Amino acid sequence: MNESRSRLADYIAVVIVFLMGIGAVMVFSAGANLSYEFDLRRFYAFPALRQIMFFPIAVVVLLGTSSINYRWLRIRERWWKSPVVWLLAAALALLVLVLIPQLGTEVNQARRWLRISIGPASVSFQPSELAKWTMVFALAALCSEMGPGIRRYWARFIPLCLLIGLVCGLIVIEDFGTAAFIALMSFLILILAGVRWWHVLTLLPGAAVGFVAALFHSPHRLKRLAAFLHPERWGDTVAYQANQSLIAIGSGGVWGKGIGEGVSKYGHLPEDTTDFVFAVVGEELGLVGTMAVIGMFILFLGLGMTVALRCRDRFGRLLASGIVLTIGVQAALNIGVVTVVLPTKGIPLPFISSGGTSMLLSAAAVGVLLNIAAQTGGDAEDADLLPPEG
């Protein structure tokens, strides 16, 4: 194992564990408000306590997946023995199941969760999160297998677009933001894989029509867009959350009010433990805290792209790029929403926002990135390092 690559993997692991630790602290702080009376006998019922529980589990998942040879995830000659094929099938099945009223759980007027009862506890699972990461892995594997053939419009590009459309179509029914994000990341991976630019451009008219249709399908989406463009007209309604986010960040100043000393969590800022936890970071840790979090994401991007550039294996290069871009772009979008640079949309901040599904799956993906960093790689070595098909 190359020593420099091993150190690179260690640096990435430290950055991610740091982000998860910050997330556990800030979610606990945001969740520790007057509306909750903590009862340790109902530990799992409180988001703040759940996040503390997920933190060590995510670290174990991170280390566990880092020990799995990433080449095992490639498309095999016998495709039915490829893990990503079954992962994709499972993701599609779960996306269908969550839309069934008797099975899917509706929260905030959206049916995005499957809830499983385990004794006195109830575990929620978000299939769209699994679908997001499945598309990163599946597209990296498929594009790697196709090689230069991906430039063929009808035989390769269009089938991949149909797959992306199927996954996004199932998600957009209840979650426009996640569907748009998956579509964005999918086409970024296709571009990195070498598709022709004019192939992508041919999809723009259809994408524009779909975007407008999705907006008009839900009046609330139109109101959010209008509130972003004219916040002064919607300050007490649709733009309330965005305004409170700016107030929370601004009140923190340079050094912040101190952990646990923020007041936005006392009913002023909705979704303070999930999509808008970065505003709580700004209020309690100030400009210094927010810049530290942003700096850690930038450092992760730099380290991750170094892994991708050093990898000589096409599959590893595409997979590493997809993992790094997914986390980096999602972080940028969330911070953009919280700072009102972008319209409000429910996209969590990776490793920091409350949510077990997101944290565990993201940790697993980064674990794979660590394995790519730790491998010497090389096209000539690929066949020897794949597990036998027998």
Write structural notes for this entry.
The protein is globular and about 60 Å long. With 390 residues, it is mainly alpha-helical. The C terminus is likely disordered. Strands 1-2-3 form a three-stranded antiparallel β-sheet, with no helix packed on it. The chain has 14 helices and three strands. The chain has one domain.
Unreliable sequence segments:
377-390
Q: Let me know the number of strands.
A: 3
Instruction: Please give the count of helices.
Output: 14
- Quote the beta fraction: under 5%
The average pLDDT score comes to: 87
The total domain count is 1
Shape: globular
Broad structural category:
mainly alpha
In helices, the fraction of residues equals 55-70%
Strand order of the largest sheet: 1-2-3
End-to-end CA span: 27 Å
What attributes characterize this protein structure?
disordered C terminus, globular, 390 residues, 63% helix, single chain, mainly alpha, 3 strands, 3-stranded antiparallel β-sheet, 14 helices
Please write out the topology.
Layout: H1 3-31, H2 47-66, H3 83-97, E1 104-107, E2 110-118, E3 121-125, H4 127-146, H5 153-172, H6 176-193, H7 197-201, H8 204-217, H9 219-229, H10 240-251, H11 277-310, H12 314-338, H13 356-374, H14 382-385
Antiparallel strand pairs: 1-2, 2-3
Helix pairs in contact: 1-2, 1-11, 1-13, 2-13, 3-4, 4-5, 4-6, 4-12, 5-6, 6-12, 8-9, 10-11, 11-12, 12-13
